[in-house]
């Protein structure tokens, strides 16, 4: 059974930082691309960032480029999202996702999803 468990969310002031983690189990993590999505209240879930299985390729939404960094540690079966210079509009539930194909993360249809972690940025 595949499980993706996010952690690290919370309340932070605008301009602050948070690091989200995604612990994976039940799959050969090093063979999967992984990514992060978010859903703000009243809005559709949107792509945030993705990283290939080897960390050789990363992709970001324009809204987070230069502020967020996606990374992974295959030895720990864990992915990360470092979020700096947070803004009120970054407030959302953040979801970890994984798929064999990175393209599935880019188009928003990955095979596996986590349950989400809340990030709230106060202005």
Report on this structure.
The chain is mainly β and 123 residues long. The strands form two sheets. Strands 2, 4, 5, 6, 9, 10 and 11 form a seven-stranded mixed beta sheet that branches. It has a four-stranded antiparallel beta sheet with strand order 1-3-8-7, with no helix packed on it. The longest helix has 5 residues. The model has no long low-confidence stretch (mean pLDDT 97).
User: How far is the N terminus from the C terminus?
Assistant: 40 Å
Which word captures the global form? globular
> Structural class from helices and strands?
mainly beta
- Number of strand elements: 11
Radius of gyration, Cα only, in angstroms? 13 Å
Give a short account of the largest sheet. 7 strands, mixed
The oligomeric status of these chains comes to single chain
Draw up the topology in text.
Blueprint: E1 3-7, E2 10-13, E3 18-25, E4 33-39, E5 46-51, E6 58-60, E7 68-73, E8 78-83, E9 92-99, H1 102-106, E10 112-113, E11 117-122
Parallel strand pairs: 2-11
Antiparallel strand pairs: 1-3, 3-8, 4-5, 4-9, 5-6, 7-8, 9-10, 9-11
Compact overview of the structure:
This protein is mainly β and 123 residues long. The protein has one helix at residues 102-106; strands spanning 3-7, 10-13, 18-25, 33-39, 46-51, 58-60, 68-73, 78-83, 92-99, 112-113, 117-122.
Please supply descriptive tags for the structure shown above.
single chain; 123 residues; mainly beta; seven-stranded mixed beta sheet; four-stranded antiparallel beta sheet; 11 strands; globular
């Amino acid at each position: 059974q595949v499980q993706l468990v996010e952690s690290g969310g919370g309340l932070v002031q605008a301009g602050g930082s948070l690091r989200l983690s995604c612990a994976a189990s039940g799959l050969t993590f090093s063979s999967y691309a992984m990514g992060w999505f978010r859903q703000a209240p009243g809005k559709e879930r949107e792509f945030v960032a993705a990283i290939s299985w080897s960390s050789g390729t990363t992709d970001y939404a324009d809204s987070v480029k230069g502020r967020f960094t996606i990374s992974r540690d295959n030895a720990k079966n864990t992915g990360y999202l470092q979020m700096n210079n947070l803004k009120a509009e970054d407030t959302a539930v953040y979801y970890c996702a994984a798929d064999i194909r990175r393209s599935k993360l880019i188009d928003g249809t990955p095979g596996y999803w986590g349950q989400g972690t809340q990030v709230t940025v106060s202005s």
